[in-house]
Design goal:
The protein has four helices and four strands. The protein has about 130 residues and is of the alpha+beta class. A four-stranded mixed β-sheet has the order 3-2-1-4. The chain is rod-shaped, with a radius of gyration of 27 Å.
C-alpha cells in the first residue's frame, strides 16, 4: 500500500486519509493548508485507489513515495497506457490491411491455377 508524503508535513492514502505530522506545527498555516488540499485532490485517483484498497495495479508495489515520485509514476502510467492504446490501434489497422491483401493474393493464386489449401485446416485434418 503506497503512502504519499508531502514535504514531511502530511502523508495520505485513500484507506488511511490524511495524516498531519508534528513538523507541520512549525510552518505557516497557508503552507499546511496547501499540503492538505493537495493531499485531498489526489485522494480519489483511480490508480492509487486500486493500489491501496485492492492491492492491485502499477502502484501496488510501492510503500512510501514523495509527491514528486507519485506524480512521475502517474505520468509514466499515462504514457504507457497511451502507448498500449496506440499499439492496439496500429495492430488493428495492420491486420485489416494484411487480411485485405491476403484475400487478393489468394484470389490471384486461384485465378492462376495454383491450388489453395488452408494451412489451418490442413494442419488439424492431417493429424
Amino acid at each position: 500500500m503506497p503512502m504519499i508524503h508531502i514535504d514531511g508535513l502530511v502523508s495520505f492514502a485513500p484507506n488511511v486519509a490524511v495524516i498531519v505530522h508534528r513538523e507541520a506545527m512549525n510552518v505557516p498555516a497557508e503552507r499546511l493548508a496547501e499540503a492538505v488540499r493537495t493531499a485531498y485532490s489526489y485522494m480519489d485517483e483511480p490508480h492509487l485507489l486500486n493500489a491501496c484498497c485492492g492491492g492491485m495495479g502499477p502502484l501496488a508495489q510501492y510503500k512510501d513515495l514523495t509527491l514528486a515520485d507519485y506524480l512521475r509514476l502517474l505520468e509514466e502510467i499515462k504514457v504507457a497506457a497511451a502507448g498500449a492504446k496506440a499499439k492496439r490501434t496500429h495492430t488493428k489497422v495492420r491486420r485489416a490491411d494484411f487480411n485485405s491483401k491476403r484475400s487478393h493474393l489468394v484470389l490471384a493464386m486461384l485465378d492462376a491455377g495454383v491450388p489453395y489449401i488452408c494451412s489451418y485446416a490442413y494442419y488439424f485434418d492431417s493429424g
